[in-house]
Amino acid sequence: MKLQQIRLPLFEVLERHRKSGALSFHVPGHKNGLILSNEMPEAIKGLLAYDMTELPGLDDLHHPEEAILEAQLLLSDFYQSKKSYFLVNGSTVGNLAMILGVCQEGDVVLVQRNCHKSILHGLMLAKVEPVFLQPELNDEWKMAGGITVEGLQEAILSFPDAKALIITSPDYYGKIHMLEPIINLAHKYHIPVLVDEAHGAHFVLGSPFPASAAQFGADIVVHSAHKTLPAMTMGSYLHIYNDRVDEQKVEMYLQMLQSSSPSYPIMMSLDHARHYLANFVEEDIVYTLDEMERFKQDLRLLSGVKVLEGPKVDPLKVTLQVLDGYSGFQLLDALQEAGVFAELADPYNVLFILPLLKKGQPFPYQSALRRISSAIEQIKRKFQPARKDIPFYQPSHHYSKLEYSFKEMGMKKKVLVSILESANRVCAEMIIPYPPGIPLIMNGEIMTHQTLSYLTELIDLGTRFHGGSLLREGKVWVYE
């Protein structure tokens, strides 16, 4: 039976407690927002009034029986899962918990190569043996795509004892790749499918948005509610869809990995994000699409950029490819000077994430358009073309393995060498352009001439990295 999606159970109990006039002699130390320096705005005090702890009637995320339980049941009902959970440590904790909950030490695990760093951290914690599936490469978008059925088939035949398949869909740019045949193939060999669907929390709305991996039989899915829904940063969901996943084991790891003092404002925003989406009606979808399409149409008329488009792309994502040899990083800098902050840039593109709007809800698209147009003109006046086109490295196999196991890497000595000297050495750190947080070179991977050439270009273009702390000095850690 469908539950009443108009309810906001967590907000309701927090609001009731706030209005009760209760006096705080418990944590947190701001005492419902009373203890606040004069420099902080009144709005902060208003938010802190909802920053509670596990008081009677406010429930407990790690043992939900009341409002949090009801809110998670509403979430599960809306996403049609077997069980759903609030995550207050972002999709990172969901990815870690689903890997640890499904995989055991020494298991062979098939993993999409262009995954988020949190997936790799989960593999390390689980001490598994990852087999990385090479994605297709899209020459127009200048980026990696999804894995292929042929590549997965080859990997399964080579590693018939594989215990899990981990895929990322959509990618950061909103592109969807072949989900149904890939999930069906994995299930044919009794391999559970774990999906990092961080950017697809709104796919449950259906067309014109892409289909969720859950629709094609994914076993466990993680969503970043804060990416496309109106949830606070770090607010995410985890959904278990069937008995291929041991929910008790996943819950155990969620309790280990999540804070024992979970944020009530984040949980309240997760309840609100579910409510917002569950009550998103057809006229809201039409209004959102109309506003977005007008914006995109105006962007298409701008000289100096190209709006990348194609089938199976999330309409909330807009990728602008910079023309005439300028880099995405140059446009990003110019946009920021104009007061427009995009989600990310890469050597070729800039990515915008657009909002889900209720009918009649305003959003400053026209102001943004004027600033974007100004920024495009600015890069032509301020910069020289900085981008060099480097051919994609096409691997000879559909899959690859690390040179050393995670255990072996923990025992080996690291040495610092120049980037030029690191060719054909085994990298001893993850080098991750951030955003989007997808590793360029993994800990335990051979530094090929092709990847080093691309790395050098990224450094020259001013890319930010997680890991590779001495890249700016021309050095990198490798194994002795």
Fill in the keyword field for this structure:
480 residues; alpha+beta; eight-stranded mixed sheet; 35% helix
Molecular structure report:
The chain is of the alpha+beta class and 480 residues long. It contains 15 helices and 18 strands. It has helices spanning 9-19, 42-48, 67-79, 90-102, 117-126, 149-158, 180-188, 225-228, 247-257, 264-278, 282-300, 328-337, 365-382, 406-411, 449-460, and strands at 83-87, 108-112, 129-133, 137-138, 143-144, 164-168, 193-196, 220-223, 236-240, 305-308, 317-322, 344-345, 349-353, 399-401, 414-418, 432-433, 465-466, 475-479. An eight-stranded mixed β-sheet has the order 1-9-8-7-6-2-3-14. It has a four-stranded antiparallel β-sheet with strand order 10-11-13-12. Helix 3 packs parallel to helix 10 (264-278) and helix 6 runs parallel beside helix 7 (180-188). It is globular and about 65 Å long. The mean pLDDT is 93.
Low-confidence stretches: none
Give the overall silhouette. globular
Strand order of the largest sheet: 1-9-8-7-6-2-3-14
Strand content: 5-15%
**C-alpha termini separation:** 61 Å
Percent helix, as a range, is 25-40%
Major sheet: size, sense and barrel closure?
A: 8 strands, mixed
What is the total tally of β strands? 18
- Continuous helix count: 15
Oligomer: single chain
Mean of all residue-level pLDDT scores: 93
Structural class: alpha+beta
Write the layout of secondary structure elements.
Layout: H1 9-19, H2 42-48, H3 67-79, E1 83-87, H4 90-102, E2 108-112, H5 117-126, E3 129-133, E4 137-138, E5 143-144, H6 149-158, E6 164-168, H7 180-188, E7 193-196, E8 220-223, H8 225-228, E9 236-240, H9 247-257, H10 264-278, H11 282-300, E10 305-308, E11 317-322, H12 328-337, E12 344-345, E13 349-353, H13 365-382, E14 399-401, H14 406-411, E15 414-418, E16 432-433, H15 449-460, E17 465-466, E18 475-479
Helix pairs in contact: 1-3, 1-10, 3-10, 4-5, 4-9, 6-7, 11-13, 12-13
